[in-house]
Specification:
- This protein is α+β, with helices and mostly antiparallel strands and 123 residues long.
- Helices cover 17% and strands 42% of the residues.
- It has 2 helices and 9 strands.
- Strands 1-2-8-9-7-6-5 form a 7-stranded mixed beta sheet. A two-stranded antiparallel ribbon has the order 3-4.
């Protein structure tokens, strides 16, 4: 199955990663498993997610809580809340991509201007 170069997510066109992308493909070296993806449980605005990071917190990846499926609403609302958290703390989103396969989004990948993962550690 091929992955399109870009898809619409939360009203904007973003690039994609295949669901087969590895932690290293996405530059993730903290709280990331080759089997399940992001492993750090967080809760943001009442939304339960899992997170991973890389490049000293300048790369952040979120997935829905379940390891075996995806929750589109949780990812959409979680991504919006995360973007607001970054903005409120003076961190700019330099790029955003989604992990996409079979018509579904499985995760959202952010490249940031500063360490955004430090904000997620207490959530």
């Amino acid at each position: 199955m091929s992955t399109p170069e870009s898809v619409n997510f939360n009203g904007e066109t973003v690039g994609t990663y295949s669901v087969a992308a590895s932690c290293s493909d996405m530059l993730l070296d903290t709280d990331c498993s080759g089997m399940t993806g992001a492993t750090k449980d967080i809760e943001l605005a009442g939304i339960k997610l899992r997170a991973a990071a890389g490049q000293s917190g300048k790369v952040v990846f979120i997935m829905s809580e379940s390891s075996f499926s995806t929750d589109q609403n949780a990812l959409q609302n979680g991504a919006k809340s995360l973007e607001k958290l970054f903005k409120d703390n003076g961190i700019q989103i330099e790029s955003k991509k989604v992990m996409f396969g079979g018509g579904d989004v499985y995760g959202v990948h952010f490249q940031l201007s500063d360490n955004g993962y430090r904000l997620l550690k207490s959530l």
